[in-house]
Amino acid sequence: MNAVVISLRLVVSLLVQRILALTIGEIGIAKIGQLRNLIQMITSTSSLGVFNGIVKYVSEYREENSKLKDLFSTTFVFVFMGSILTSLILLVSASWITRELFGDLEFVNIIRCLALLPIIIGIHRVFQGIIHGLSKYKAYAKIELISYMLSVVLLLIFLNFYQLKGVLFSIILVPIVQLGVVVSVFRPTLNKFIKVRWLKFKIPFFKELLAFTLMSFVSTVLLNYIELDIRTTITNKVNINEAGYWTAMNFISRNYMAFSSSLFSLYVIPKFARIYSWTSFRIEVTTIYKTLLPLFGLGMLLIYIFKELVIEIVYPNFLGMELLFKWQLLGDFVRLASLVVSHQFLAKKMVRSFILTELMSLGLFYVLSKYLVTIYGVEGVVMAHFYRYIIYFWVVLAIVRNYFINQKNANY
């Protein structure tokens, strides 16, 4: 079910990226990348990063109303606080943010409009967490497909009338579309699990969800900030066209990685949450590897072999992208293997391990990118992407194995 939806999204996304490449070029693609990074940061801060916490605790307490009552009361307090804070920062700093993202104030009104949306983004994120925690595969697939198709239609309409500015504006409207679809499709289940009379302005799950807030800040906010900074570095040290090539490469990467990201929250986190021994964990990881890695490996090999055709189909005239494929694909393959193991941190709320390994990974990416871009240009950034995940994989594997050994010893 998930594969069908992702495949349809992939086909449509390729067509949309081709249209964007032909109409707004490398510079437009780079600016879209800047805005998407900002929205990813807002997605985390508007809900204070509680998504994975909701997935974990809904999966564990789906039959315990008292626990769910405490969970959702805390969750909506977090969303309210995070959304208000995010909106205020966006409104007060709109001009500064616009200059940092785009170099001038041409799109400042888009940032001001975006400042009105964090509450919608936060609520949508909560509803998404419930869907994933309940492992509602069919509902998730239906919601994802409808939301994406409506968003594409919106983007194409605004592109036709307003060019780049229209595209950027349509992107900030996507959360409204997503929330509307979730409520329409998933309302009966939401009504069952979220009772309005339950919700109190109290935070009994504060400590539990705060851990996920810290993890989300590191993995989402810092990551997107670093991507913004690296794109700016490429623009300043090379040129904005090269920044557009790197952004385009990331778009392709995110499209084929989308299958794994949804699988992690739908299947891996709920499954790992119920595993308590190294043997069982190793068996489950091996099963996932046998299922995923050959498929992804074959797909990535085909993308590399036909990279010139991919560029011609998706990003005509973006010939500077060709050098980026090898390192990006190698890095993403190792990244996939790493992420399977590292989701144990989320499933078992291993906050310290998660934060330390994420900081290590992001630090490696940032430092290596800054260094290698001066030697190899934009290719140095994707080289840094590969090198950091080689190191990250072995560190994460060692930490998870050590966790289970300590748990076993503690039980004796």
In a few lines, what is going on in this structure?
This protein has 412 residues and is an all-alpha fold. The chain contains 14 helices and no strands.
Topology:
Layout: H1 2-46, H2 51-61, H3 65-92, H4 94-102, H5 108-114, H6 118-133, H7 137-193, H8 206-237, H9 240-272, H10 278-305, H11 307-314, H12 325-347, H13 351-376, H14 379-410
Characteristic key phrases:
412 residues; globular
Structure notes:
With 412 residues, this protein is an all-alpha fold. The protein has one domain. 86% of the residues lie in helices and 0% in strands. Helix 8 runs parallel beside helix 13. It is globular.
- The helix content, as a percent range, equals over 70%
Classify the beta-strand content into a percent band: under 5%
What does the average pLDDT come to? 87
How many strands, what sense, and barrel or not for the largest sheet?
none
Helix/sheet category:
mainly alpha
